[in-house]
Amino acid sequence: MRSFSALSKAEFLKESEGKAFDIAIIGGGITGAGIALEAAAKGYRVFLCEAGDFASGTSSKSTKLIHGGLRYLKNLQFGVVRNTGIEREILYKNAMHLVRPEPMLLPVVKGGSLGLFSTRMALWMYELLAGVKPEMRFKILNREKALRKEPLLDSAQLLGAALYTEYRTDDARLCISVLKKAVEFGAVCVNYAPCKEFIINHKGFIEGIVAEDASTNKKYKIKARYVVNAAGPWVDEVRKLENSNSAGNLVLSKGVHLVFPHSQLPVQQAAYFDAPGGRMVFAIPRGDKTYVGTTDTPFTGHPGEAGINIADRDYLINACKNMFPGIALRADDMISSWTGLRPLIAKPGKGTTELSRKDEIFVSRAGLISIAGGKLTGYRSMAEKVIKKLHRLGLPKQNAYFSTRKLKLSGGDFDHIDDLKNYLERQIGEAKQIGASPLTIAAWVNRYGTDTEKIVEMAYELWPQTDQKELVPLFAEINFAVHAEMACSALDFWERRTGDLYFNFENLDAQFRAGFSFLCNLLQLNNEEAAKMKYDFYAAMDKVRPVK
Ligand SMILES: Cc1cc2nc3c(=O)[nH]c(=O)nc-3n(C[C@H](O)[C@H](O)[C@H](O)COP(=O)(O)OP(=O)(O)OC[C@H]3O[C@@H](n4cnc5c(N)ncnc54)[C@H](O)[C@@H]3O)c2cc1C
Fold first, then answer.
1. Ligand 1 environment, Cβ below 6 A
2. Which of 225, 255, 269, 515 has the fewest Cβ atoms within 10 Å of its own Cβ atom?
3. Ligand 1: distance of its center to the CA of 171 in Å?
4. For 288-320, how does the pLDDT look when each residue is reduced to its tens digit (9 = 90+)?
């Protein structure tokens, strides 16, 4: 099986130069990852390059829900609701460790966007379209029951509530889990290797890409029959590389999320509620934190520069105070935040909130296939669509292949939630002798699923070689991230492999100090590279901190 080690990257790039791929994919977010898996599982030769780290774009900045798409009912996007409902079920079965049901409370208040009757009708329609199983169907709660579910709601304004089921996930981990499976099927996936140009033949058609290794600036020519541009908010920028005058179809909409200590926003469960101005926002408890989002405002700058401002912060804090008037939430309580960009297909005269979240595929005259729009939830069906498009463009169909409908993602080898619970118990037992607490093992099982045992194994190997025994679990996890998930820096590990940048911010500095030298040694960094990694890490910590 192909390795997915950060230390093998240069070798992968070098090897790839002499090969002829069927498909080269630009962008290692969920869209590119999904296409890589779909294509590799069907037996195609796949190359994927990502400019930064995998999932470093929008795919680590979402609301982290695998939606049935209730929000899209409002815009009458019935097809999107239906599709996301089906995909959600598939994803739950294939990645149970990363996709879990989350009961969501939808309060109905005086003067709100929906009354109790219309909420009932909307949810009925939504669940019908999304194919929700009978045991998961919504309930309407009267005022008293709603208050029992969520005592923070304003009793004077409350009319009742609906309780329905969403699914939560970890977006970056989902993306990495998809990529790891693609790699198992033989795909070559490299991060920190932006596509810089296209290889164009004498007839003016694209027949490959030039990817640059960002650590050495060395360029590699990668030949492929088809090139797919899955660069999310950067799709138009990539289209400009082919001098296409068709670029410019995208508009970007910014969405911000804030993280608070749960004690300051002590919602008993996840809620989806009206914010002043007509949008709806989520408040979702996660461990000892609650996160809130999202905003939806046009963004016209460079995608790499999107960040939170005071207006975003205040909008979300006011939305919470409006729905839960008893809370004493202040801007200073905010622990961290993230900002994502939705790449939306522009339509004249429409604002970002009105634009469809549907995906679209464009093929340029030179043959560049660009895909934009869509959702994290629908990545698999988007990938299927891209492969169908490639078939129509001339890619020969393969006879034998795996359908991704029934393909477990990396770490997702569970058939039932009880299998996952039993697995967790077993791993807690296994890990007793290497100093990993049950909480650490639970976090690993949620992140890595059945790959947890590989980390436990690494911890056993490290145990006799390490004097600081209490750091063995951290070292083992770092080791796994570098060798099995292509983590190339501290930020790759603490932001996207573990999510600690957002959800364990208060312990981050200590964790970083404890793991820094070990990580530098693993990555074989010289002093200058280590100093840069440190600088980048603290700069990222500053970026997610409260805005002044
Ligand atoms: C605020 C917000 C909340 C959301 N919430 C949800 C949700 O809860 N559930 C849901 O289903 N969906 C949600 N979405 C939508 C979902 O997150 C996106 O549809 C999805 O992440 C887009 O993935 P992508 O791979 O297309 O883009 P990205 O994740 O941005 O990936 C594109 C990648 O291309 C790379 N790239 C750019 N240029 C180059 C180049 N020249 N060479 C190589 N690589 C390049 C970038 O570095 C980037 O990593 C949300 C979106 C936002 C903004």
1. 26-32, 49-52, 56-59, 61-65, 67, 194-195, 230-234, 238, 255, 294, 340-342, 374-377
2. 269
3. 10
4. 999 999 999 999 999 988 999 999 999 999 999
